Description:
The protein is α/β, with parallel strands linked by helices. It has a single domain (65-241), classed as Rossmann fold. The protein has eleven helices and seven strands. The chain has a seven-stranded mixed beta sheet with strand order 3-2-1-4-5-7-6, sandwiched between helices. The model has no long low-confidence stretch (mean pLDDT 94).
Amino acid sequence: MKERPQITAAEMLSRLETAAWTRELGPEMLEPLARYIELLAAANRRFNLTAIRDAAGMEQLHLRDSLTLLPVVDRAPSGPLLDVGSGAGLPGLPLAIARPDRQVCLLESMARRADYLRETAAALGLGNIRVLTARAEEAARDPAWREHFALVTARAVAPLGTLVELCVPYLKRDGLFVAMKSDDPEELAAADPALEALRVELLERHDYDIPGAGKPRCLLVFRRTGSLPQRFPRPLAQIRRGPP
């Protein structure tokens, strides 16, 4: 099978400079965003990071989708951001590029992907990035990370009820957890036991469309309102067996 041509930073920069959705981004952001996509596409040829391999998909489904979080990031309390299950660096790396004054921690359990994240952050000269190689349910028990973050994000990692239990223990009191999901009212309803047990409330819901996404998407913004019970997060096998 013929190998797909490499996506270059110049090609992506040209797309970003002419795209309507980037008009509110500073021009200084576009070049590092384009370079990030070039690095992601190159790494994706060596090992699987994303099923999206074309320039249009990378622009819309990765960059544009990730940066829909910017209004929430800007309203969040001051303090570091954690991207749980960062994988290819989404949405954490684009957010770190767009908001260099916000410290961003990328949590990734797979060592090879974590190494890619470190190499990419270094290549982009991002001084506000830290990469943590650990399982989410285990690192949340570490006092260095538990209740440490002002904002936690997760994109297409697990069902919402599971995400709540994995992500909320990292939040400071009144911190925000943002789940990037496809529109599914049943999934939100199924997460109610976890939301109640971890003392979290749904603060905002933002519905939006991304060309090529296939179905409507939404940002679910939650706020931690109460003290964190010590028993959370449970071991992953227990989380998967059912709600708390």
